[in-house]
Amino acid sequence: MSDADSIEERMNRHQAEIEAATGNAPGKHEFAAALREVLDELASSGAPDDFLRSEAERVRELAAELRRHPAPPAEGASVLTGMENFHDRSPIVGLANPIAPPAVLEHFPDEQSVRGTCEFSKAFEGGPGLVHGGFLAALLDEALGVVTVYSGSAGMTGEYTLRYHAPTRIKVPLRLEARYDSRDGRKLYVSADLWDGETLTVHATGTFIAVDDAKFEAFAAARSEHVEAS
Protein backbone atom coordinates (compact mmCIF):
# COMPACT_ATOMS: atom_id res chain seq x y z
CA MET A 1 0.00 0.00 0.00
CA SER A 2 1.63 3.22 -1.12
CA ASP A 3 1.04 6.35 0.94
CA ALA A 4 0.75 8.16 -2.40
CA ASP A 5 -2.43 6.28 -3.18
CA SER A 6 -5.59 8.22 -2.43
CA ILE A 7 -8.49 6.85 -0.39
CA GLU A 8 -10.50 6.68 -3.62
CA GLU A 9 -7.79 4.68 -5.42
CA ARG A 10 -7.51 2.21 -2.57
CA MET A 11 -11.28 1.90 -2.35
CA ASN A 12 -11.64 1.23 -6.08
CA ARG A 13 -8.95 -1.44 -5.93
CA HIS A 14 -10.53 -2.98 -2.85
CA GLN A 15 -13.99 -2.96 -4.47
CA ALA A 16 -12.69 -4.75 -7.57
CA GLU A 17 -11.02 -7.40 -5.41
CA ILE A 18 -14.16 -8.01 -3.31
CA GLU A 19 -16.43 -8.20 -6.35
CA ALA A 20 -14.08 -10.71 -8.00
CA ALA A 21 -13.87 -12.82 -4.83
CA THR A 22 -17.58 -12.80 -3.94
CA GLY A 23 -19.19 -12.60 -7.36
CA ASN A 24 -21.42 -9.79 -6.07
CA ALA A 25 -22.86 -7.45 -8.64
CA PRO A 26 -21.26 -3.98 -8.57
CA GLY A 27 -24.78 -2.56 -8.30
CA LYS A 28 -25.02 -3.56 -4.63
CA HIS A 29 -21.89 -1.59 -3.83
CA GLU A 30 -23.09 1.39 -5.86
CA PHE A 31 -26.42 1.26 -4.05
CA ALA A 32 -24.71 1.22 -0.64
CA ALA A 33 -22.48 4.13 -1.66
CA ALA A 34 -25.57 6.15 -2.62
CA LEU A 35 -27.13 5.44 0.77
CA ARG A 36 -23.94 6.65 2.45
CA GLU A 37 -24.43 9.98 0.69
CA VAL A 38 -27.95 10.16 2.15
CA LEU A 39 -26.69 9.35 5.66
CA ASP A 40 -23.96 11.97 5.28
CA GLU A 41 -26.48 14.73 4.52
CA LEU A 42 -29.65 13.79 6.40
CA ALA A 43 -28.86 14.98 9.92
CA SER A 44 -27.73 18.43 8.76
CA SER A 45 -30.44 18.84 6.12
CA GLY A 46 -33.07 21.57 6.37
CA ALA A 47 -35.35 19.95 3.79
CA PRO A 48 -39.10 20.61 4.29
CA ASP A 49 -40.99 18.21 6.54
CA ASP A 50 -43.52 17.18 3.87
CA PHE A 51 -40.68 16.29 1.50
CA LEU A 52 -38.96 14.17 4.15
CA ARG A 53 -42.20 12.36 5.03
CA SER A 54 -42.95 11.52 1.40
CA GLU A 55 -39.39 10.31 0.84
CA ALA A 56 -39.56 8.22 4.00
CA GLU A 57 -42.52 6.36 2.53
CA ARG A 58 -40.58 5.76 -0.68
CA VAL A 59 -37.70 4.35 1.35
CA ARG A 60 -40.10 1.97 3.16
CA GLU A 61 -41.36 0.77 -0.21
CA LEU A 62 -37.79 0.26 -1.32
CA ALA A 63 -37.04 -1.80 1.80
CA ALA A 64 -40.06 -3.98 1.05
CA GLU A 65 -38.80 -4.54 -2.49
CA LEU A 66 -35.36 -5.53 -1.23
CA ARG A 67 -36.94 -8.10 1.11
CA ARG A 68 -38.46 -9.75 -1.96
CA HIS A 69 -34.97 -10.65 -3.19
CA PRO A 70 -33.11 -12.56 -0.47
CA ALA A 71 -29.47 -13.33 -1.20
CA PRO A 72 -28.44 -16.92 -1.97
CA PRO A 73 -26.27 -18.74 0.59
CA ALA A 74 -22.85 -17.15 0.89
CA GLU A 75 -19.99 -18.81 -0.94
CA GLY A 76 -16.26 -18.23 -0.94
CA ALA A 77 -13.16 -19.04 1.04
CA SER A 78 -13.24 -18.44 4.79
CA VAL A 79 -11.55 -20.07 7.74
CA LEU A 80 -14.76 -19.72 9.77
CA THR A 81 -18.35 -20.75 9.08
CA GLY A 82 -20.65 -17.81 8.44
CA MET A 83 -17.84 -15.38 7.67
CA GLU A 84 -17.71 -15.97 3.91
CA ASN A 85 -19.13 -12.58 3.01
CA PHE A 86 -17.79 -10.62 5.99
CA HIS A 87 -15.90 -8.10 3.84
CA ASP A 88 -19.19 -7.17 2.19
CA ARG A 89 -21.49 -7.06 5.23
CA SER A 90 -19.17 -5.72 7.95
CA PRO A 91 -20.33 -2.45 9.57
CA ILE A 92 -16.72 -1.23 9.32
CA VAL A 93 -15.30 -2.46 6.00
CA GLY A 94 -18.42 -3.74 4.23
CA LEU A 95 -18.84 -2.25 0.78
CA ALA A 96 -22.44 -3.50 0.70
CA ASN A 97 -23.20 -2.08 4.16
CA PRO A 98 -24.18 1.60 4.02
CA ILE A 99 -23.38 2.21 7.69
CA ALA A 100 -19.71 1.27 7.07
CA PRO A 101 -17.44 4.31 6.46
CA PRO A 102 -16.02 2.02 4.82
CA ALA A 103 -12.45 1.31 5.88
CA VAL A 104 -9.93 -0.50 3.67
CA LEU A 105 -7.64 -2.98 5.45
CA GLU A 106 -4.68 -4.63 3.74
CA HIS A 107 -2.55 -7.52 5.01
CA PHE A 108 1.25 -7.51 5.35
CA PRO A 109 2.06 -11.13 6.28
CA ASP A 110 5.82 -10.68 6.58
CA GLU A 111 5.24 -8.08 9.28
CA GLN A 112 2.20 -9.84 10.81
CA SER A 113 0.36 -6.57 10.50
CA VAL A 114 -2.63 -4.95 8.85
CA ARG A 115 -2.59 -1.40 7.51
CA GLY A 116 -5.59 0.57 6.49
CA THR A 117 -7.22 3.79 5.48
CA CYS A 118 -10.55 5.30 6.42
CA GLU A 119 -12.38 8.59 6.03
CA PHE A 120 -15.38 9.27 8.25
CA SER A 121 -18.24 11.35 6.88
CA LYS A 122 -20.46 13.81 8.74
CA ALA A 123 -22.69 10.90 9.74
CA PHE A 124 -20.00 9.88 12.26
CA GLU A 125 -19.55 13.32 13.84
CA GLY A 126 -19.44 13.59 17.62
CA GLY A 127 -17.79 16.83 18.75
CA PRO A 128 -17.80 19.61 16.13
CA GLY A 129 -15.83 18.39 13.14
CA LEU A 130 -14.61 15.33 15.03
CA VAL A 131 -15.25 11.59 14.74
CA HIS A 132 -17.32 10.17 17.61
CA GLY A 133 -14.97 8.16 19.82
CA GLY A 134 -17.20 5.09 19.75
CA PHE A 135 -16.76 4.74 16.00
CA LEU A 136 -13.00 5.02 16.37
CA ALA A 137 -13.19 2.19 18.91
CA ALA A 138 -15.17 0.09 16.44
CA LEU A 139 -12.66 0.77 13.65
CA LEU A 140 -9.70 -0.29 15.77
CA ASP A 141 -11.57 -3.30 17.17
CA GLU A 142 -12.12 -4.47 13.60
CA ALA A 143 -8.45 -4.06 12.71
CA LEU A 144 -7.34 -5.82 15.89
CA GLY A 145 -9.67 -8.72 15.15
CA VAL A 146 -8.40 -9.03 11.58
CA VAL A 147 -4.75 -9.15 12.63
CA THR A 148 -5.36 -12.09 15.00
CA VAL A 149 -5.22 -14.41 11.98
CA TYR A 150 -1.41 -14.24 12.24
CA SER A 151 -1.63 -16.21 15.49
CA GLY A 152 -2.83 -19.22 13.51
CA SER A 153 -6.40 -18.78 14.82
CA ALA A 154 -9.06 -16.18 14.43
CA GLY A 155 -9.82 -14.29 17.62
CA MET A 156 -12.78 -12.54 19.18
CA THR A 157 -12.56 -9.51 21.44
CA GLY A 158 -11.83 -10.30 25.08
CA GLU A 159 -10.88 -6.81 26.15
CA TYR A 160 -9.07 -3.85 24.73
CA THR A 161 -7.88 -0.49 25.94
CA LEU A 162 -7.91 2.77 23.99
CA ARG A 163 -5.83 5.84 24.67
CA TYR A 164 -7.15 8.90 22.87
CA HIS A 165 -4.12 11.12 22.28
CA ALA A 166 -5.75 13.79 20.10
CA PRO A 167 -9.09 14.56 18.41
CA THR A 168 -9.70 12.75 15.12
CA ARG A 169 -11.24 14.84 12.34
CA ILE A 170 -14.07 13.87 10.02
CA LYS A 171 -13.69 14.29 6.24
CA VAL A 172 -9.94 13.66 6.21
CA PRO A 173 -8.03 10.50 5.23
CA LEU A 174 -6.88 8.55 8.28
CA ARG A 175 -4.39 5.72 8.36
CA LEU A 176 -4.02 2.88 10.81
CA GLU A 177 -1.75 -0.05 11.57
CA ALA A 178 -2.63 -3.11 13.65
CA ARG A 179 -0.07 -5.68 14.78
CA TYR A 180 -0.15 -9.23 16.09
CA ASP A 181 2.18 -9.17 19.10
CA SER A 182 2.11 -12.53 20.92
CA ARG A 183 0.10 -15.50 22.12
CA ASP A 184 -0.39 -17.20 25.48
CA GLY A 185 -2.65 -20.22 25.13
CA ARG A 186 -5.94 -18.94 23.77
CA LYS A 187 -5.07 -15.33 24.58
CA LEU A 188 -3.92 -13.30 21.58
CA TYR A 189 -2.21 -9.98 22.21
CA VAL A 190 -2.54 -7.27 19.58
CA SER A 191 -2.05 -3.50 19.26
CA ALA A 192 -2.93 -0.71 16.84
CA ASP A 193 -2.44 2.98 16.11
CA LEU A 194 -4.59 5.51 14.24
CA TRP A 195 -3.09 8.58 12.59
CA ASP A 196 -4.49 11.84 11.22
CA GLY A 197 -1.61 13.01 9.05
CA GLU A 198 1.45 12.94 11.30
CA THR A 199 -0.62 13.11 14.48
CA LEU A 200 -1.22 9.94 16.48
CA THR A 201 -4.84 10.21 17.61
CA VAL A 202 -5.61 6.80 19.14
CA HIS A 203 -3.51 3.88 20.45
CA ALA A 204 -5.13 0.54 21.22
CA THR A 205 -3.98 -2.67 22.92
CA GLY A 206 -6.13 -5.76 23.06
CA THR A 207 -6.48 -9.28 24.34
CA PHE A 208 -8.49 -11.45 21.97
CA ILE A 209 -9.58 -15.04 22.54
CA ALA A 210 -8.82 -17.69 19.93
CA VAL A 211 -11.94 -19.44 18.63
CA ASP A 212 -12.40 -22.45 16.39
CA ASP A 213 -14.86 -23.14 13.60
CA ALA A 214 -17.18 -25.15 15.86
CA LYS A 215 -17.98 -21.97 17.78
CA PHE A 216 -18.76 -20.11 14.57
CA GLU A 217 -20.91 -22.98 13.33
CA ALA A 218 -22.98 -22.55 16.50
CA PHE A 219 -23.21 -18.78 15.92
CA ALA A 220 -24.29 -19.34 12.30
CA ALA A 221 -26.96 -21.85 13.35
CA ALA A 222 -28.32 -19.46 15.95
CA ARG A 223 -28.43 -16.67 13.39
CA SER A 224 -30.50 -18.84 11.05
CA GLU A 225 -32.98 -19.60 13.83
CA HIS A 226 -33.21 -16.12 15.31
CA VAL A 227 -32.41 -13.48 12.68
CA GLU A 228 -33.25 -15.01 9.32
CA ALA A 229 -36.48 -16.54 10.62
CA SER A 230 -37.73 -13.22 12.02
Description:
This protein is α+β, with helices and mostly antiparallel strands. Helix content is 37%, strand content 24%. It has a single domain, classed as Hotdog Thioesterase (Thiol Ester Dehydrase, Chain A, Roll), CATH 3.10.129. β4 and β5 form a beta hairpin. The longest helix has 19 residues. It is globular and about 60 Å long.
Assign an overall shape.
Answer: globular
Q: Oligomeric form of this entry?
A: single chain
Radius of gyration: 19 Å
CATH topology: Thiol Ester Dehydrase, Chain A
Q: Which architecture does the CATH hierarchy give at level 2?
A: Roll
Helix percentage: 25-40%
How far apart are the termini?
42 Å
Largest sheet descriptor? 6 strands, antiparallel
Give the uncertain stretches in residue-range form: none
- Integer average pLDDT: 87
The SS-based structural class is alpha+beta
Give the strand tally. 6
Estimated share of beta-strand residues: 15-25%
SSE order in H/E notation?
Answer: HHHHEEHEEEEH
Number of helical elements: 6
| Whole-number count of domains | 1
The CATH H-level superfamily is Hotdog Thioesterase
Order the strands across the largest sheet as they lie in space: 1-2-4-5-6-3
CATH class: Alpha Beta
